[in-house]
Amino acid sequence: MTTKALAKRWSVSPRSLEGQRQRNVGPRWVKIGGSVRYPRSEIERFENWFTHSDFTGA
Q1: What DSSP element (H or E) covers 9?
Q2: Which SUPFAM superfamilies does the UniProt record give (predicted)?
């Protein structure tokens, strides 16, 4: 997934994701032919890391 597509998915700016890459936080990414791509499996792993399974709604 491109930086632009992930930014849209998460409702953040592409620059925010660029900053995460520079700080080595966020999902793992790869650079292919000069373009940054986020593997879907890494996006899902990162999103699941923030999912709370102990939520008990009333």
Answers
A1: helix 3-10
A2: Putative DNA-binding domain
